[in-house]
Amino acid sequence: MLRHIPALMDKGKPVSVLFTEEDGESSDLMYCELIQEARFGKSFLVRNQGCKVGAYVLKEIELSPEDYYYTTGRYRDRNAARRAVTNLSRLKKKPKSIKITPYQGEDFDILILFPKPEQAMRLVQAYTYLEGRRVDIKAGGIASVCSECTAYPMQGSMAISPGCKGSRKHSKYSGEELLIGIPFPLSEEIDSALGKIPGTLA
User: The whole model's pTM is what?
Assistant: First the structure.
């Protein structure tokens, strides 16, 4: 049971994301919306969700979102849009279902938080406390919840994202909040380190 990490969120709870072989349902909600709903108490078991970009990242489909990103004016030209999609982190294989719940002590694959900058700093300091390694911020301003804070942490690293237009528009988390994804293997060490590092004003 994590003690210190959950206390770093002012609103709601961290969200537990678990890839499972259970039978889930299709949802019209986007992945980022499901995460936000779970933050405030709802639970979901889904095999598909309602965002085409999320579907690409979560391996529900293989259709690239390149055309979507280009036609919506997010990039100067098609080459830039193609490069952005190439740089997206994706799951290596499609899970049968994804269980998305407010964190209550259960095992998870990824834990997603919505901290403010000072709280995010504390998590970075706890991460670097372990071995002195810096945290790489791999942000492209797109697919922040599904790619940057779910698929990328599945490679074993903590992820920080400033968010993206889509997730901020549809799930409406605060403009004061960042996103952080923590893989399960790192979570207990980071949680323990939070109890050992100096406080911000200490």
Answer: 0.95
Residue 189 CA to residue 99 CA, distance in Å, equals 23
Per-domain residue ranges for the chain?
Answer: 6-194
As to burial, measured by CB atoms within 10 angstroms (0-12 exposed, 13-18 middle, 19+ buried), residue 87 is: exposed
Instruction: Tell me the pLDDT of the chain (202 aa) as tens digits.
Output: 999 999 999 999 999 999 999 999 999 999 999 999 999 999 999 999 999 999 999 999 999 999 999 999 999 999 999 999 999 999 999 999 999 999 999 999 999 999 999 999 999 999 999 989 888 787 999 999 999 999 999 999 999 999 999 999 999 999 999 999 999 999 999 999 999 999 887 6
Cα–Cα distances (Å) from 86 to 29, 79, 89, 197, in that order, read 25, 10, 8, 38
